[in-house]
Write a structure and sequence with these properties.
By secondary structure, the protein is an alpha+beta fold. Helix content is about 35%, strand content about 20%.
Length: about 575
């Protein structure tokens, strides 16, 4: 029998202890948890440092952006670098490093700034990163580029009501004053040109523009234009290509007065186009002189508005500059659409929607009228197409007038015979349609010359053609099926023209701002369509029109954050 002493037992127990310790798993989770905790603490600490860094960076960048925008404003009278540094001084930021660079000229100011700040780390320091640097950089520029503007303004009859004309005139004047601030009148350096295009049922081109454009030879009394549908597909308008005039006639075709009273197209320069001006005073004067009257031809106004921005009309501006009408700095305008230094803008405003556009219908616009007059004997002769002969009214004895006289004779020749040559007085002279329309209303032409021939022959076709179709609505509302121009069943041919010219303007990069000024739904629809974007469309009432024009002026002069 073997007996172990106490010392031997102790030695044997100690020999077995390492192997038991290595085999047992008690307490290992504590070590692993400690390692995970340290790792989580480090990662969380890094996140805290990064969030502190990002917060500081955003604040730094925000302060810098605001500072350079304020410093770059051309109306900023303080030193640009001082403005930037003052923004930082007031921001609550500390220990930043700031560098400011300013570049400016007559028509621009560019302010570039770079800033950085150090932030001490709380947790990343254990990894050897004691600080993080927050950078911020930005450039703001206000560059008053060359700007060409056309203001297409509604002066139709509905503008007489609810102080609309007065409110529009105030807003337009304020706009002109605002955008013209970019011109340096002290040094006579002009950057902004403005053309005024008032419109109602037509556009009165006026003597200034007509002097450098070509019109047809229908007459020389006035310069209201008309265009075909195809003309609205382009912004171009060649000054050397004849433009069709509206006839010289009295629109009041329903009036029983026999004689011409007022021309449909004005013969003066009231409400006429005022092109390519840099004069605030002259533009204000033109706007102040507007009178509200007539129908509404938005498409016609827009056609002229974009034409004065199209480079095809450059020869016309050049001619006016040579005559001393346009400032010499505008030579070369309208510039090409690809010119990066020029912004082209149309402001199109209406209080209504497209309505009627009238003219003498084609068969009666020019040439001989078939109406003859013998000056010495004060005798008229009227050729009647259906009879192929002349009706010669018998003079009344009380006032020697042939009008409204049911009595007369038929003859194969006019009274006194056919004229041998113009200017002779022993024979009757045929009157041109131009002369007839400039002396009689449509009703008078039909009633006084063709009523009784039709009465005696029973053939009313020619009388009716003159009486009801002598004037045509060549655009605007389509005449209804019952012949009433106010029939609600009308097409939108003028709206189609307007959409077409607006498409052409946008395709050429022209910015189109539109204002629906207390306009009906139809007017609102086409204004929204024509605007370059939803942000370029304004729907306003009353004095809000001033806010719309002011907003457009601010947009034109707005600062651009370029980096």
């Amino acid at each position: 029998m073997i007996v172990l002493t106490s010392g031997a037992l102790l030695h044997k127990g100690l020999d077995r202890l390492p192997s038991r310790f290595l085999r047992r798993e008690d307490g290992t989770i504590t070590i692993f948890g400690l390692l995970i905790f340290i790792l989580m603490l480090a990662i969380g600490g890094v996140a805290v440092d990064i969030m502190r860094y990002e917060t500081q960076r955003v604040q730094l960048q925000y302060t810098l952006d605001r500072a350079v925008l304020a410093a770059a404003a051309l109306n900023q009278t303080l030193d640009a670098e001082d403005v930037v540094r003052d923004y930082f001084a007031r921001s609550g930021l500390e220990r930043y490093r700031l560098n400011v660079t300013v570049d400016q000229g007559v028509n621009y100011r560019e302010v570039e700034a770079y800033a950085e700040m150090d932030i001490n780390t709380y947790f990343m320091d254990m990894f050897g990163i004691r600080a993080l640097t927050s950078p911020a950089a930005g450039t703001a520029e206000e560059r008053i580029q060359n700007i060409e503007i056309s203001m297409v303004l509604d002066t139709s009859g509905s503008m007489r009501y609810n102080s609309k004309l007065t409110n529009m005139q105030t807003a337009a004047r304020e706009f002109v004053s605002a955008v013209m601030e970019s011109n340096d009148y002290d040094t006579d350096e002009m950057l902004v040109s403005v053309s005024l295009v008032p419109y109602n049922g037509f556009v009165n081109v006026g003597s200034t523009v007509a002097s450098v454009f070509t019109f047809d030879d229908l007459h020389t009394n006035s310069t209201c234009s008309r265009f075909d549908t195809a003309d609205y597909a382009t912004t171009a308008l060649d000054p050397s290509t004849p433009i069709q005039r509206l006839a010289h006639f009295d629109y009041d075709y329903r009036n029983y007065n026999s004689y011409f009273r007022r021309p449909y197209c004005p013969t003066d320069d009231d409400n006429a186009i005022f092109p390519w001006s840099n004069s605030v005073t002259a533009l204000h004067s033109q706007i102040n002189g507007y009178v509200a009257d007539g129908w509404t031809a938005i498409d016609m106004g827009m056609k002229w508005g974009v034409a004065l921005l199209d480079p095809s009309t450059r020869p016309a501006l050049t001619a006016l500059e040579g005559a001393g009408t346009v400032h010499e700095d505008f030579l070369g305008r309208p510039v090409d659409f690809t010119d990066d230094e020029t912004i082209k803008i149309v402001i199109l405003m209406t209080d209504g929607e497209n309505t009627e556009q009238w003219d003498v219908s084609e068969p009666f616009r020019s040439g001989g009228s078939g109406i003859y007059y013998h000056e010495d004997d004060d005798m008229w002769s009227i050729w009647v197409p259906s009879e192929d002969r002349f009706w010669i009214p018998t003079p009344r004895y009380n006032d020697n007038t042939t009008f409204n006289n049911p009595y007369g004779t038929w003859d194969d020749e006019p009274y006194g015979g056919f004229p041998v040559s113009l200017g002779t007085s022993n024979e009757s002279q045929e009157l041109s349609w131009q002369w007839v329309w400039s002396n009689f209303t449509e009703y008078a032409v039909a009633r006084n010359f063709y009523y009784y021939p039709a009465y005696w022959t029973g053939d009313w076709d020619y009388y009716n053609e003159l009486r009801y179709d002598g004037l045509e609505m060549f655009s605007g509302r389509e005449v209804g099926s019952n012949g009433d121009p106010f029939d609600p069943r009308r097409s939108e041919n003028a709206n189609a023209n307007l959409r077409s010219i607006c498409d052409a303007a946008r395709a050429n990069g022209i910015l189109v701002f539109t204002i629906a000024f207390e306009a009906p739904p139809g007017g609102q629809d086409v204004m929204q369509y024509c605007a370059t974007s939803a942000a370029h469309y304004y729907d306003v009432d009353g004095i809000e029109i001033s806010d719309a024009f002011a907003s457009i002026a601010n947009t034109i002069n707005q600062l651009r954050l370029t980096q």
